[in-house]
Specification:
- The longest helix is centred in the first third of the chain and has 19 residues, at about 80-100.
- The protein is built from eleven helices and no strands.
- Helices cover about 60% and strands about 0% of the residues.
- Among the domains are: about 10-70, no CATH class; about 80-120.
Amino acid sequence: MGGQQPNQDDATFYADMVKISKIPNVSTNPHLFAWYYFVSKFTDTIKATWAPSKKAATEAKAADKKSSAPAAPVMNPNASKEDIEKLEKCKAAIVDMKKEKAPKEKIDMAVAELKRLKSICELPAGSAAPAQKAAPAEKKPASGPPAPAMNASASAEDIAALEKCKAAIVEMKKNKAPKGEIDAAVVELKRLKAICEVPAGGAAPAKAAPAKAAPAQQSKKQKASSGPAAPQMNPNASAEDCALLEVQKAKIVKMKAEKASKEDIGVAVVELKRLKAICEL
């Protein structure tokens, strides 16, 4: 049926006729009877080896064409949405150009742009899709310097003044106060820090417990000196600051002896108080 060689159409049609027990009449349908007689000579095993029917062969060819068509490209997960949209628009534009028989140069330029976009948006055949870029890890705020150790000998009033001074400087900077005012506040802050805080790496000085003197020695000391007792030095003060303190004391004594102006002596006394706050407890 449909050719010189028998195929599956012949086998199927013969099987259908056998099922309904319909044998062609040799007188009325001699050609059909000859075909029937010819096919009946083959076993089912032989019939199974016959070529497929024309319809099946056509469908097989169509399936082969579909299977041989290039697979859809794998999209790059890292490509942006904008680039993918440009790629699709470029493809459609080239199709329209070819339909409208646009100039070759124009089509070539569009194809070059298409290749560029494909290199961004599509992965080469056989390559694995790259892992999507991980979202950047949240930066943890760097831990600030540890809180300074407080000087055990500092008074509650000085510590309170230190905190107030810190807050005042923050407000000044927010309100963009004049630089002179901020600098003056910073000088005061340093003075209070020298009194209230222990330098980094230094041990907080223990409060000195007054030693109990023997009654006889105590009475002798009271008789010997009616003036104030010598100040206790801060063990955390640097040698340079202590030396400057002694120099400043001597300078003021000399200024008073030479009867310097009140303003000059006042300036020197302010500096003396600042050094005392650093060096003396």
